């Protein structure tokens, strides 16, 4: 997980999906983050960060935003449901004999386990879970 600090000066075009919104670009400080998926519970904090003149911190894992610190306020994070993720992993393991479909789907589970770990790291630092 990497953290990017600076003033959020621009949010690009969006692609709205069921659980997340993908921003074409997020300009923070002197960096441009492209094609970043933002879980819907974190959107309000990202927009709040874009409207404030002070520096914010975005916590990014791969191409997904996992946490936001708005100015000097609290940090907020989102993590997927552990129960749903464990169930999906079990089902995908059972699907491995079916044309290797389970192997492809397990790769997605591993990505989400990474997001879960990043959320746990932010939780250990005192961040607030959003729902």
Q: Strand arrangement, largest sheet?
A: 1-6-7-8-9
| H and E order | EEEEEHEEEHHE
Distance between the termini: 21 Å
Rounded to an integer, what's the Rg over CA atoms?
16 Å
Total helical elements: 3
Which band does the percent of strand residues land in? Answer: 35-45%
Number of distinct beta strands = 9
Percent of residues in helices: 25-40%
Main sheet attributes: strand count, strand direction, barrel closure: 5 strands, mixed
Low-confidence blocks of residues? none
- The chain-level mean pLDDT equals 89
What form results from the Cα inertia axes? elongated
Protein architecture, described:
Strand 6 (56-61) and strand 7 (64-69) form a beta hairpin. The strands form two sheets. A five-stranded mixed sheet has the order 1-6-7-8-9, with helices on both faces. Strands 2, 3, 4 and 5 form a four-stranded antiparallel sheet that branches. The chain is elongated. The protein starts with a strand and ends with a strand. It has helices at residues 40-50, 82-94, 101-124; strands spanning 2-6, 8-11, 14-16, 20-28, 31-39, 56-61, 64-69, 75-77, 128-129. The chain contains three helices and nine strands; from the N terminus they run E-E-E-E-E-H-E-E-E-H-H-E. Helix content is 37%, strand content 36%. With 131 residues, the protein is an alpha+beta fold.
Put the structure in a nutshell.
By secondary structure, the protein is an alpha+beta fold. The protein contains three helices and nine strands.
Features:
131 residues; alpha+beta; 5-stranded mixed β-sheet; 4-stranded antiparallel β-sheet; 3 helices; 36% strand; elongated
């Amino acid at each position: 997980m990497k953290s990017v600090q600076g003033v959020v000066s621009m949010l690009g075009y969006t692609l709205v999906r069921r659980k997340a919104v993908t921003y074409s670009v997020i300009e923070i400080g002197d960096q441009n983050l492209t094609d970043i998926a933002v879980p819907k519970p974190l959107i309000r904090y990202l927009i709040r960060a874009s409207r404030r003149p002070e520096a914010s911190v975005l916590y990014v894992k791969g191409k997904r935003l996992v946490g936001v610190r708005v100015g000097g306020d609290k940090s907020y994070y989102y993590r997927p449901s552990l129960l749903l993720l464990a169930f999906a992993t079990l089902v995908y393991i059972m699907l491995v004999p079916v044309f290797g479909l389970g192997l492809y789907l397990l790769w997605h589970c591993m990505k989400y386990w990474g997001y879960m770990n990043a959320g746990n790291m932010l939780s250990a630092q005192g961040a607030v879970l959003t729902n």
